[in-house]
Design goal:
Elements: H1 15-42, E1 46-55, E2 58-61, E3 67-72, E4 79-80, E5 85-89, H2 92-148, H3 154-184, H4 197-214, E6 217-219, E7 224-227, E8 235-236, E9 243-247, E10 252-258, E11 270-275, E12 278-290, E13 316-323, E14 337-343, H5 352-367
Antiparallel strand pairs: 1-10, 1-14, 2-9, 3-5, 3-8, 4-7, 5-6, 7-9, 10-13, 11-12, 11-14, 12-13
Helix pairs in contact: 2-3, 2-4
Length: 372
């Protein structure tokens, strides 16, 4: 049986083992500290979501007038420019309406001139009637003077009284007729024909008929792609949709972020965009605006949070994102799925350590070779 000497020292560890041990004891905590620091600096900087879809101007074309579609100038999914003729409604009934309105305008002008001529004629009649009244009055006065001297009969005097009364009534009738004609002329007998109310009504009817005729030409309100085009011969009703038009410019993204992700999101912040159709390309944009209400507020049946069976659900708020310098060779379409990531810039890069670390990351990213 052997015994060990308690005074004997253990053999020293090899130098390599000591080096590894010291490296692990110092390196692992240092790595943890660095990783924790980087996460604290960059971890809350970016917020992203896959609940994001491309939007575009999309309208339903509805004619202003009704009629049979006589011609369809565009095909399904055809590119059209603003002002291009897309559909033609049969214009024949509306041309007839324009001709009728022109005739009514000419008739109104003739009627006004006829009234003016009648007014001038009745003025002459009034002058004559005034002279007849004055003459009848003088004759009646003369006969009354003769009657006082018993030089005329009572029947003769009565005749002159009748003539005077008749002359006055004729004068009054002419004066009333002049007032009627003046009222028909708008209260001003010297008013130009173009300013007469009847003429302006007829002119407005003509303008409306011409506008209806122009509305038989259905043109593109903006650049876009034709959709749901009708067939020639179909009947179009006023204010009822006959086709669609989808814009191919000024596209945007509606990203629905959780409310907890929007703490530091502000308009103007940079956005990285990935489109599912083009997985190998990265697009850039910026935050244009943030909706004032959650998506649930616009639903047909909004949530009734005052009920007894309430369960808290994280809401989503629409964020409008605009593209920056969208490549011309990329065909983005409304409704495409995207992944967006917003750079909130948190924490502030003015802090020296944060700015220095971000500079290193940005420099390293810039020096990476481009993907093949």
């Amino acid at each position: 049986m052997s015994t060990s000497d308690p005074n004997t020292k253990p053999a020293p560890l090899p130098r390599r083992t000591r080096l590894i041990r010291r490296t692990l004891l110092v390196g692992i905590p240092l790595v943890v500290v660095v990783v924790a620091g980087l996460m604290s600096i960059f971890g809350g900087r970016y917020v992203s979501t896959e609940n994001a879809y491309i939007g575009a101007p999309l309208i339903k074309i509805a004619p202003e007038v009704s009629g049979q579609i006589s011609e369809v100038r565009v095909e399904e999914n055809q590119l059209v420019r603003k002002g291009d003729l897309m559909l033609q409604i049969d214009p024949a009934p509306y041309r007839i309406a324009v001709d009728h309105a022109k005739a009514e305008l000419a008739k109104a002008a003739n009627d006004i001139r006829t009234l003016e001529a009648s007014y001038a004629t009745r003025q002459e009649d009034l002058s004559l009637a005034e002279e007849n009244v004055a003459f009848a009055k003088r004759e009646l006065a003369r006969q009354q003077a003769l009657a006082k001297r018993q030089l005329t009969s009572e029947s003769e005097l009565e005749k002159y009284r009748h003539d005077y009364t008749t002359a006055r009534r004729e004068q009054a009738a002419i004066e009333r007729d002049l007032k009627r004609i003046a009222t028909s002329l708008g209260g001003k007998v010297d008013l130009p024909v173009e300013q007469h109310p009847d003429y302006q009504v007829a002119k407005a009817n003509l303008e409306q008929a011409e506008l209806d005729l122009e509305h038989t030409h259905i043109r593109a309100p903006f650049d876009g792609i034709a959709a749901k085009t009708p067939d020639p011969g179909a009947y179009a009703r006023a204010s009822a949709s006959v086709m669609g038009l989808v814009g191919n410019r000024n596209l945007w993204i509606d990203a629905n972020f959780k409310e907890t992700d929007l703490t530091r999101v502000k308009p103007g912040q940079a956005v990285s965009i990935e489109v599912d159709t083009y997985p190998d390309r990265e697009f850039h944009g910026h935050v244009a605006s943030i909706a004032q209400a959650t998506g649930a507020e616009f639903s047909v049946l909004p949530a009734q949070n005052a009920t007894g069976n309430w369960v808290k659900v994280v809401q989503r708020i629409p964020v409008r994102i605009r593209f920056d310098d969208l490549p011309a060779d990329i065909g983005l379409r409304a409704g495409m799925s995207t992944i967006v990531e917003i750079d909130t810039g948190y924490p502030d890069a003015d802090v020296p350590l944060v700015g220095w670390l971000r500079g290193l990351v940005s420099k390293a990213h810039a020096e990476e070779p481009p993907a093949e």
